[in-house]
Design a protein that fits this description.
The two termini of chain A are about 15 Å apart. Chain A has one domain: ABC transporter involved in vitamin B12 uptake, BtuC (Orthogonal Bundle), CATH 1.10.3470. The longest helix of chain A has 27 residues. In chain A, α3 packs antiparallel against α11 and α4 packs parallel to α6. Chain A has a two-stranded antiparallel sheet. Chain A is mainly alpha-helical. The radius of gyration of chain A is 21 Å and the shape is globular. By secondary structure, chain B is an all-alpha fold. Chain B is about 75% helix and about 0% strand. The radius of gyration of chain B is 20 Å and the shape is globular. The chains are: A mainly alpha, B mainly alpha. Chains A and B meet through α5, α6, α11, α12 and α14 of A and α5, α11 and α13 of B.
Chain lengths: ~325, ~325
Amino acid sequence: MPAAVEPGAKGSESIIVKRLLGFSIRYSIFVFFGLFFAIVTFLRPGFMSLGNIYDILVEASLVTFVAFGEAFVIAAGAVDMSLGNIAGFGAMIACYLLSVRDFPVPVGVAIGIGVGTLVGLINGLFVTRLYMNSLVATLGTMFMLVGFLYMVTFGQTIMLLPDAFTWLGTGSILKIPIPIIIMAFAFLICHLLMEKTKYGRTIQLIGGNIEASRLSGINIKNVILFAFVVCGLLGTLSGILLAAHQGLANVDLGERFLLQAFTAAMLGTVIFGGRNVMLGTLCGSIFLISLINGMTILGAGPEWIYFVQGSLLLGAILLNYYSKRVLPGLYR
Amino acid sequence: MSRTQSSLGQLISNYGTILAFLVAIIFFSIATDTFFRLGNLQNIIIQSTALGLCAFGLTLVLIAGEIDFSYGGIIGLVGALLASMLQQGYSPLSATLVCLLVGGASGLLNALLVVGFNLSSFLASVAVFFLCMGAERVYSHGVTVWIQNRTMLSLVQGHIGPVPTPIVLLLGLLFVCWFLQTQTRAGQHVRAIGENIQAAREAGIRTSLVKSLVFVLAGLLFAFAGCLETLRNGGAIMYAGKQLLLFVLAASFLGTATFKAGKANFPGTLVGAFFLITLMNGFTLLGMKFYLIPLAQGLILIASVAISSIRRGEIEQVKF
């Protein structure tokens, strides 16, 4: 156990110093990225071109979407391993209906989203009604979804999607790519839901201390259940967006983004020290994608991706640890 | 009345998975001619070896009340090291020692992060998982290296007496793990820490030391499993650990639903690993569609764990 520093033990002056110190440790990750952007731009000016920034943001928005779903569940002190497969499953069903059965786009998308949300609900029921550990319950769901996916599609890739559908992933309004716009809306909604509503405060209370929230008479079960439903909904949305962006749907659609989304959601829990998780998640995925993009531009190649991912995660949790240690009590 | 009821429930939650496993074995034996043959049964055990050993490592960490995902990276990293060192002409012994050393070092890193810095083992071990996977990719350049060394390959293909070597290794390590955990004082300390770390500390157990040892031992087991998996594959395949990641988790958690409901234990983990592989083997022999395999595995996982956890009565949280 690290020696706890008593806040206020040496007068208010030292608190200010510590507060500054804690602040600067915590936000040094932003300084690091500022420097990184500056150096890459200096060496390769193309990095800061509008085209590349859009590339980074579109990629990041696809990751962030999945990550938002995970962030809800993580905030409730649970984890959803099946999220990538929920994304793939919902998207595959929507694309199957659109491409093979000629459903109208809104109906096909709505059914896909409905199915994904239902899987989220089932996950939530496993965890809150059967008291299963969320890691195992969603692992089981994940295995079953893999089976279902192959059963429905026989591992085929679905192409020939209607233009109105692919427009969602490739089109732009006022020259801004649509995924970015959708992501901005999703961020606003998730952020407000998490920070400004009673539900958001409740879920963070549960994630922080389930015993205290049980004693305070909150209906824990339904709050966690709802987090899983939201997670399923956002996961499916991201899968559909991804399929629209690629112009095709295949069985490992969601898995491609799963690890990055997990990383982004975990970064979200630590960047602002457990607060503003949605903003943290957004920053996390933009950092991650731009780091990979920048290193690729510098010629580091794809073999460094996991190394970068691991170092970023490790760096962020260590920064969180140090800023908490400098001034315990300032951050949750 | 209520007492018989509760003991019946206890019985079902402790032995339900075993029962399902036996039912599956009997079903496959009747439905196919080839399942219940010595060769096939040996095959199932050999296929479960790396999975089982790796799951032992995870089980050890779970008993101590933490979690460790780093095996997803360690297995691949160790495989790449082993294959390329053998190719460069190092002796099998030194190559294996280096692999174990790397596994132990990753475990030490986990221990440093979780015990030293008091970080969540979930986050820390995922970071180590990524780092090891990155190291594997950078080291191997994504090239598959095949193993030619006969002495090493005989470790997985050879026999000790009439019994295939992997079976001896697996059952031997099961006995060692089980013995150390249940029959020695240190092993009981591990369980005590997992149950209630505060109480364990107050009882005078050196929790930091025990927990660090657990992570290092787990790292060694992961590395050993990685060597065996590489030898079984005949070479280092990229991201071999990532492919095992979910199966190892599934085996360990099936184990928590076996023998001791809700608690990780080594014999249960082995049953879990056998069960997953048996389903794969049996469905393949039956000529069933391949997608039914993950479907059945998922169903079994959910059903077993649900039965063993429904009596818990409160929601279990993951520590972040």
